[in-house]
Amino acid sequence: xxxxxxxxxxxxxxxxxxxxxxxxxxxxxxxxxxxxxxxxxxxxxxxxxxxxxxxxxxxxxxxxxxxxxxxxxxxxxxxxxxxxxxxxxxxxxxxxxxxxxxxxxxxxxxxxxxxxxxxxxxxxxxxxxxxxxxxxxxxxxxxxxxxxxxxxxxxxxxxxxxxxx
Length: 165
Fold this sequence. Notes:
The protein has helices at 2-27, 106-115, 117-147, 154-164, and strands spanning 32-38, 42-43, 53-59, 62-66, 71-75, 80-81, 90-94, 98-105. With 165 residues, the chain is α+β, with helices and mostly antiparallel strands. It has one domain (2-164): Jelly Rolls (Sandwich). The model has no long low-confidence stretch (mean pLDDT 77). This is Cyclic nucleotide-binding domain-containing protein.
């Protein structure tokens, strides 16, 4: 029982720290751009000079797709999208009627992280959150394959339910 309580406490701390990281980015002096997207608008993951971006989802749901249109990831409010290594092979797309994101140059974010041990800890927790999200998707995909079933990501499920009303 203590182990379960400790795990829940660590998960809550990670969520709080991840939120602080996003707040630190938004309150910092680094350049950022707020984007208001409509459903199916494309999200360019790099600038025209191939500078990678990092995105923070403020509202709505966005998806990351391969150039062959295979869904790779979905993200909703409070999630971070950072696919710089693969950005030439991927694109983002707004999946709900309205999606609001903040866009940062990746190099600016990394410089901000390097400046502060507190932001480094917050970033570490954000990475843990992303890792857990991806692990859950992988586990679900494995289970779905075994059961030959289909499951929908919670953000997508919520979006689909609200559209059908």
